[in-house]
């Protein structure tokens, strides 16, 4: 019985910490849509008044506005954002704009502010970068991710003779002619394999078998 009670006491002590972890929300997926649809009309990039709350960037949201912050990192419970959206007398957004926040949206913004109010650039505006781990082409990247998740890696590359035979049989249904195979094996250019593929695609027997 004492062990059970001690367990509950421990959970009670850890509860604030667990709540903090649970408060993490995805900015791009959950927070940004709410800010964009309900808040940016008055507190976005087009805001003209310099002393007005801005929520379109992390720097603007966390700047000192004369003793208070839209998102207060040091005292998140005192974030102006939280205080205003839960203000029953003068709620934000104002009722006249017909953009009232739903309880779920209020919860998202509150969790976000309490967890530090971190911003993240929306994926649509992030330029994709090719992974250095990718081999050959984009398909290899996805295959490689699955292999690494299982603690595996790509099989060692087959001998050049095998590669030539495989691609020739695939494209023409026939093994490579001795002259074509010899030319491929002597070709030391980095794109030798691609050149072999191109020559097979241009072959009159391509796709006949």
Structure commentary:
- This protein has 9 helices and no strands.
- It is an all-alpha fold and 209 residues long.
- It folds into 2 domains: 2-125, no CATH class; 160-201, no CATH class.
Keywords:
mainly alpha; 209 residues
Q: How many angstroms separate the termini?
A: 78 Å
Sketch the topology as an H/E string, one letter per element: HHHHHHHHH
Q: How would you characterize the largest beta sheet? A: none
Mean pLDDT: 82
* Integer-rounded radius of gyration: 30 Å
Q: Show unreliable segments.
A: 1-23
State the secondary-structure class: mainly alpha
Number of separate strands:
0
Beta-strand share of residues: under 5%
Output the number of helix runs. 9
**Count of individual domains:** 2
Shape: rod-shaped
The level of helicity is 40-55%
Give a brief description.
By secondary structure, this protein is mostly helical. It has helices at residues 2-22, 27-43, 58-61, 80-85, 103-114, 138-149, 160-172, 178-186, 192-201. The protein has 2 domains: 2-125, no CATH class; 160-201, no CATH class.
Write the layout of secondary structure elements.
Blueprint: H1 2-22, H2 27-43, H3 58-61, H4 80-85, H5 103-114, H6 138-149, H7 160-172, H8 178-186, H9 192-201
Helix pairs in contact: 2-5, 7-9
